[in-house]
Design goal:
Layout: E1 24-30, H1 37-47, E2 54-60, H2 66-74, E3 81-86, H3 92-103, E4 108-111, H4 123-133, E5 137-141, H5 155-171, E6 187-190, H6 206-213, E7 219-223, H7 238-252, H8 256-269, H9 271-283, H10 288-311, H11 321-348, H12 354-377, E8 406-410
Parallel strand pairs: 1-2, 1-4, 2-3, 5-7
Antiparallel strand pairs: 3-8, 4-6, 5-6
Length: 416
């Protein structure tokens, strides 16, 4: 199969004099992009090798023939092309990028999509800008003068993209300082600036993950025109949108104080199912004391589901769901048992009035419940330090890491 398509739409490099950049690994996460990879590799061949040494690493989660097509097309490429196929797409597109960052061997890593909405001709400029400005991260931005989001189809996608950008910048003003387009999936980053073990990707907004968890980074930007998809259908779905919102919550609650705040807000929302259940039970003639106890369980269930899905998603794997449920229920109900003795203690021993004593008891049991939930329900397991070539997740001197559930194959005979 030839890598040369019938036509070429990617603009040629402008020939601008640029400082000599370091070598680059182009990481392309793919999911069912068999109709795009020939054109992509052709445009990379036309735009990149003449200006800087490169290698291309496809991290593939496809269920179609994308890996086979890449291997066939790569035979005509003047640079190394590797396919790292993942049997389990952990972390979605973001997880694929992290796998690519681990396996990259060049000074610079450029991340771009496989659907040709990111022009390969911009790769040398991204790297050269980083070299010239001493930046660790160079973002291709749709929102700089000269950039455009023209490739976004439909008013709704434009609105969602813009709203997502405002939300991210509003939640992380310090980490995203100097980043006008945190939703961009097209960027260059120095490999030395990346700490893969610190990354916990969820969905496809990996730039946000890198900027927040690897920050602070020195940032530069270049404008780019977001192109229309060459072939296939968009991977942006409602499910990905919900994963993005959940990702924002996880990033924002990484600090203990922020987690405690969200924990408290979730607890406040639990009053709604609690009161509704209490009203329903008392109307059916249930005595108010057992009704109060039963209604409290509705709030406990509500809080547990939100905390599981939003606050401690990454820690759920440490215990079985039944174990987590039982522990959380015990802690939540212990709050009721502990609160009355505390109020009595504050009134009798400290001479406090009933209302201040009740408020102090509520704060005390809340802090204890949060600490207990973290320590007894969602405590992480101790990690064993492993080093040396061939250790899973650690790049060895001979190339990509030996990862469970992945297979790497160099698909071209070009010298590395």
């Amino acid at each position: 199969m030839s890598m040369r398509p019938e036509h070429r739409t990617d603009p040629a490099p402008d020939g601008t004099e640029l400082p000599e950049p370091g070598a680059v690994t182009i990481v392309v996460p793919t999911f069912n992009e068999q109709d795009n990879v020939a054109e992509l590799l052709y445009r990379i061949t036309e735009s990149v090798p003449a200006r800087l040494p490169c290698e291309v690493l496809f991290v593939d989660d496809s269920t179609d023939q994308t890996p086979r097509v890449i291997r066939e097309i790569a035979q005509d490429c003047p640079f190394p092309v590797t396919v790292l196929h993942r049997d389990a797409p952990d972390g979605g597109l973001g997880g694929a990028v992290v796998a690519g960052l681990r396996a990259a061997t060049s000074d610079w890593v450029v991340v771009m999509d496989g659907d040709l909405q990111h022009p390969p001709s911009l790769v040398p400029e991204l790297v050269a800008t980083g070299e010239k400005e001493g930046a660790q991260l160079v973002v291709a931005s749709r929102y700089l003068p000269g950039g455009s989001r023209a490739g976004l189809s439909g008013i709704s996608r434009v609105a969602v993209s813009r709203a997502s950008t405002w939300l991210a910048k509003g939640l992380f003003p310090r980490a995203l300082r100097g980043v006008s387009d945190p939703m961009s999936g097209f960027f260059a980053i120095r490999r030395a600036a990346v700490h893969p073990d610190a990354l916990k990707p969820l969905g496809y907004k990996i730039l946000l993950e890198l900027a927040v968890r690897n920050g602070p980074l020195t940032v530069a930007e270049v404008p780019f025109v977001f192109q229309e998809r060459h072939a296939g259908t968009s991977k942006s779905t409602l499910r990905e949108g919900l994963r993005y919102l959940r990702h924002l919550v996880e990033l924002r609650t990484a600090a203990p104080l922020a987690r405690m705040l969200v924990f408290g807000l979730i607890g406040l929302t639990g009053f709604v199912p609690n009161l509704l259940a209490l009203a329903a039970l008392t109307r059916t003639g249930v005595h108010y004391l057992p009704a109060e106890i039963l209604a409290n369980q509705a709030g406990v269930v509500w809080n547990f589901l939100l905390i599981e899905g939003l606050l401690f998603r990454e820690r759920r794997r440490h215990r079985h769901w039944a174990d987590r449920t039982a522990r959380f229920a015990v802690l939540a109900n212990a709050d009721l048992v502990l609160r009355i003795p505390l109020i009595a203690l504050f009134v009798r021993e400290l001479g406090m009035a009933v209302l201040p004593a009740t408020a102090l008891a509520l704060v005390t049991t809340f802090v204890l419940r949060f600490a207990g939930t973290e320590a007894l329900v969602y405590a992480g397991k101790a990690r064993t330090s492993r080093t040396g070539p061939g250790t899973p997740g650690t790049p060895g001197p001979s190339g990509p890491p030996d990862q469970a559930g992945t297979s790497a194959e160099t698909a071209t005979g070009a010298a590395a």
